[in-house]
Please model this.
Amino acid sequence: MPSGQPRQINLQDIKLDLTTFEKLLKTGKVSNPVLVFAGPEDFLKEKAFADMVQKLVPEVDRQDNTVRTGSTAKELPGVIQQIFSFTFNSSPRLFLFQEIDSAPAKQRKDFLEKLSNGGIPADTYIIFNVTDAKIAGEITAKFKQQSDRIDFWAPFANQLGAWIRNQTSEQGAEMSSEAADQLIELVGSDLAMLHQELSKLALSSRGKKIGLAEVKAGVAYLRQNNVFDFLEAFGQRNSTKALRCLETMLNSGEAAQKIWFMLCRQLRDFRLLHALMRDRPDLFEPVFALLRRYSLLAGKSDFKSNQEKKNLLSEIQQLADSMPETLAKAAALRQPGKLRNLYLALNFSYAELTAVAREIIDNDLAFKSGIADAGASLQRFTASFLTGKTN
Model:
C-alpha cells in the first residue's frame, strides 16, 4: 500500500469472542466502551445486554442509567444529547441501539461521526445490535481501538446440550446429558424457549439433579414441531416430514395464514436467488458454488464440519461485499439467519418456482377472502408441490 494512505481495517481485526466477553463481564469489567453485537442470534444478544445491566449497574440506578432506543431520525438526536448530558449518579450508563442497520446510510454515518467526535464519556457503554455484517464492520472501523465486535451465533447441534447444561449451572442447578437431549427433543433448537424451560426446571429442582423424569414431567406439554421445522422440511423436499409438521401445528391451533405467509416468503427468496443467478452469473455463480459445498455439510454436526460451514458462510459474506449493495441485500447474503438456510434453494429450479407463482397468488386470494379452508389448502399445496403431482 502506498505510504500516506490509511490502513484498511479488516472486519476480523476488531473482534472479541463471546466466551472472553462473558468471562470479562463476570469480573465486572468490559474491555471497551463501544460494543457491536453482531450475528443472527437475537436471544443471545438480549441476554448479554441483560447480563451487562445486572453486573454493571446497581439496581437502584438501572431505570435512569439503562436506555434502549431505536434508530429513527427522531430518536438518534435525542439520544446523543442523553449520552453527553450530566448524570446525577456515578454508576455506569448503558445505551442499547436497536436496528441501527435499518437507518438510512447518511443518517447512520452522521450519527456515528457525532458520537465519535464527541468522545465516549467515562463509565458509558454504547451497544449496537446489528444484523448486517458490513455495517458491523463500519461501526468498529469508526471507533477503532475503542470498540469490540462480538458475534452471536446459536450453538451448533452437537454443542446445544452442553450449552443447556452450562445455562442450568449458571442458575445454581445441574442437568444430566440425557435430560438436556430430551429437552432439545421436546422444545427444539430455539434458544429463548430452551432458556425459558430450563429456568423453570432449575427453579423447581430444589438442589436435586434434573434428570429425564423431571424434563418429561415439566416440558412434555410443548409441541415438537414449529414453523421453522416445517420450512426446513419443505426446503429439503421431504414431503413426509413437512406434512407431519404441518398437521401437528394445525392441530395445535397454529394459524394456517401465518404458516402460508412464511412459506411464500421462503419460496419468493428462493426464486429471487435463482433469478439473480440467471441475470448476473458473474456475481452469483461463486455464491452457488459455495452453497453447493455447504449443502454437503448441512446435515453434519461434528467439529470439523461445523468449522467448515462457518468458513463457507464467511466466504459468501465476503463475496457480498464486492457486489452492488442492492443485490447483496435482495439475496440476504449478509443476514446470517437466512444465509444458513439459503442452500435449500438448490433443491428447486427457477422454472418450477416461476410456474407455481400463479397458484400461490390464487391460494393467497382464497385465504384472504375466507373462501378456502386455509389449513386444507396449505396441506394440498405442500403435498402437490413437493411430490410434483397437481390437483
